[in-house]
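Field: sequence (string)
Field: structure_tokens (string)

Example rows 1 and 2, in order.
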Amino acid sequence: MSTVAGDPGGGDAARHEPMTLPANLPRPQDDGAADHLPGAQVPHVVLVDTDGQQVDLAALAGRSVVYAYPRTGRPGQPPLADDWDLIPGARGCTPQACSFRDHHAELTQLGTRVFGLSTQDSAYQAEAVDRLHLPFALLSDEHLSITTALRLPSFTVAGTRLLRRLTLLVRDGRIEHVWYLSVASVALQVVTSLLLLRHSLAASVPAEVPAHADAVSRDVVTELAFSKGRELVGEEPARRGTK
């Protein structure tokens, strides 16, 4: 998006570019709406993915990373509301999806599947999968089934209920860890997932931040993982990325 700092409106369809984030996006605050999720059992809810398959997250063996997001935009089309960029945490869904795309092979090598989750319908999601070349499926909670059952953090814009941005690490149907993070560090969700999975599998954390981390995520990972004697990532998973 070509919106410049000081002009965050973004209502002009001609200027809207989902991959480009304005410099002055408001940072969301941790309101505690995800505090109940770590350790929770995922309910048996069947969702349709963009491959046309029915997916019950509670029934999947092993690990799954499920990242929830409000909605992906489309180049040249206006956002859902003229003040979309002023809503903390609303902007950044396309870069978030691309972060998981770019690190999908690493997560797969760790035996972890990836899903995106939103309240958009499957047809809308399928366009994003194709345009962004996503190697994983997106899950549609169009009817708010799992949103309601898990009490996932959400907000309403223009009469549409949307999920707040968060990432769940699910193992054998139970939520192991939750990241409820700011848009500015969406890549952190991938990096911390990789670090945590490596710790779980090898009982150690790399001595250095992974080379593929961008400048923002490198700084935040360093703060989270190494500020107290290089403590292990994941000891306090739900609230620490919201500063």
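Row 2 begins here:
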Amino acid sequence: MPQRSQRCAAATSASAYPQRQEKGRSVTAEEWSATRLSLLVAAAAVCGSLPFAIPIAFLLARWRSPVRSLLETLVSLPLVLPPVVTGYLLLLAFGRRGPIGAFLEQTFGLRVTFTWLGAALAAAVVGFPLMVRAIRLAFDGIDPRLEAAARGLGAGRWDAFVSVSLPLALPGVVSGAVLAFARSLGEFGATILVAGNIPGQTRTIPLAIFTEVNRPDGMPTAARLVVLSILLALAALLVSERLERRAHG
């Protein structure tokens, strides 16, 4: 009887092993879900932060004041802070008991933490310095005399910015957006604190890799997601590099 049980167990495990291998060769629904969610989060992070990044970058490029150094330091702070610290601060501010989170939920019924919006918020904050830096370099490369000439012809500050500065800086703006998009795709530390690791809701590619690595049979899935992350990052960097060359060429 024990020998028969051992043979049955061996046969069961042998029949299950090819199924796991066959499953490992195809893309699962969880992988597609993580990929779609990562793209959604990264796109939302870029769209939400770009309207703030452009004026701040222009201000840093043109403003001459001691306060400018303080503003530049605050903008660059997420680059040097551990992402977990950034996530903790966001959780304090946007949590259900936080000042901003409580206001949004009570006024608009909008909950940020532990939703995909929280993941987008974390990605936006972490990628914001990269976006601002690329856009600022683009504005630095524009001759201020062109703006002065436009204003001399009767254009106001806003008209000169929209008709002269922004079109000339457009390659840098797109480059900064692409860099922030790529950084958002790889965000992990702040996301897991603000949004959690909820399958189908907040589990992006980095969180899915972390989850699969901690499973006994999850290494093949993790490897596929790692390759996908590398390909997306390479594509984003190539696009950003090409746009930067175009902006400075």
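free_text_note (row 2): The chain has one domain: 30-248.
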